[in-house]
Amino acid sequence: MSETKQAIERVDRGRFAKGQSGNPGGRAAVPAHIKEMLGELTPRAVEIMAETMGCDDPKLRFLAAQEILNRTLGKPKQDVALNVRTDAASAHFAALQSLTALAAAHSGPVLEHQPIVDVEPDVER
Length: 125
Hints:
Largest sheet: none
Shape: flat
Oligomer: single chain
Low-confidence stretches: none
Helix content: 40-55%
Mean pLDDT: 80
Radius of gyration: 29 Å
Number of strands: 0
Structural class: mainly alpha
C-alpha cells in the first residue's frame, strides 16, 4: 500500500483550516477476515448472554440483560450539563452552592446547629 500523505493545512494555534480534517481517510475498515471470524462467533456470544440471564448472580443477569437491550434498542441517551469556568473564585462559589443544596436535601442533620456569633469589633470614632 503506497499512499501519499498530503500536508494538512492549519491556521493560527495549530487548528485545522476550514474544510480540513486531521483524519481525512476516516476510520480504518475492519479487515474482511476479522469480520468473518466475528460473524461466526456471534451466535455463540448471543447464547452465552442468554445463558447468563438465567444464572444465580443478579449482577450478571442484569449486565447480560442490559447488554442485550443496548445492542437491540441502542444505549439510552444521556443529557449532560457542562459548565466550564476558568475563574477559580466562581468555581469555588459554585462548589459551595452545590454542597449547600446537597446538605439541604440530606435526610438528617449534616452539621450540628451552632449559634451565630457577632465578630464585628466595637470601634468608636
